[in-house]
Structures are given as structure tokens and as C-alpha cells.
């Protein structure tokens, strides 16, 4: 979802800050960010991209997403290794600070 409309994702589709990723019931979605961070959304999941900056030449990094519903598998990319304090994954019940890892998060 982008603004008030839906954008059908295709390989290579660029994500924007404030895009909401919604996977259909019975379907999964895989996202690979420029720094190699990987997110896999489970069926019927909703994830909001809050912030993303990967500018190694300027040493500027940010990764912030919010899982509103469903489940996701997160696997760190370069941001998680170079600037682990700049990675945030939140849900309605918790916020996770990432220090270079892989984990599963679920939101009801």
C-alpha cells in the first residue's frame, strides 16, 4: 500500500518510507533490502516501513519497520553488522533491537 492506493509488487519494485507491505491470505512475500537485509512476511501479514537509510560512504544507516499483524522472519544485512543500534523491529507488543541475527516475530 502506498498512500491511498495499492501497488502490486513485482521483483525490483522500489519501497518508499511509509509503504505498508500486505501479504494476501495464503501467500508469503520476500523482501531484500539494498544492504542485504531480508524479510519474509507470512500469509495475511502487514508491515510498515518506517525508516530505511543505507549510505555507507556517509556512514548513515537506519532500518525501522513495524509488524502490525501476522508474522515475519528477519535476517540481518550490512546495517545490522555496521550499525546494529540503528535497527528497530517493532510490533504492537514489543520493540526489538537487533544486533546481527535472524529471528521470527509475530503480531496478533
In short:
By secondary structure, the protein is mainly beta. The chain has one helix at 78-82, and strands spanning 20-22, 29-32, 38-41, 46-55, 60-75, 87-90, 95-97, 102-107.
Give a description of the structure.
The structure is a single chain. The chain has a single domain, classed as Jelly Rolls (Sandwich). It is globular, with a radius of gyration of 13 Å. The two termini are 20 Å apart. The protein has 108 residues and is mainly beta. Strand 6 (87-90) and strand 7 (95-97) form a beta hairpin. The model has no long low-confidence stretch (mean pLDDT 87). It has one helix spanning 78-82, and strands spanning 20-22, 29-32, 38-41, 46-55, 60-75, 87-90, 95-97, 102-107. It contains 1 helix and 8 strands, in the order βββββαβββ. Strands 1, 2, 3, 4, 5, 6, 7 and 8 form an 8-stranded mixed β-sheet that branches.
Write the SSE topology:
Elements: E1 20-22, E2 29-32, E3 38-41, E4 46-55, E5 60-75, H1 78-82, E6 87-90, E7 95-97, E8 102-107
Parallel strand pairs: 5-6
Antiparallel strand pairs: 1-4, 2-3, 3-5, 4-5, 5-8, 6-7
Strand content: over 45%
The termini sit apart by: 20 Å
CATH architecture: Sandwich
Structural class: mainly beta
Low-confidence stretches: none
Proportion in helices: under 10%
Helix and strand element order:
EEEEEHEEE
CATH class: Mainly Beta
In the residues, how many domains can be counted?
Answer: 1
Number of helices: 1
Keywords, separated by commas or semicolons:
108 residues, mainly beta, Jelly Rolls, eight-stranded mixed sheet, 1 helix, globular
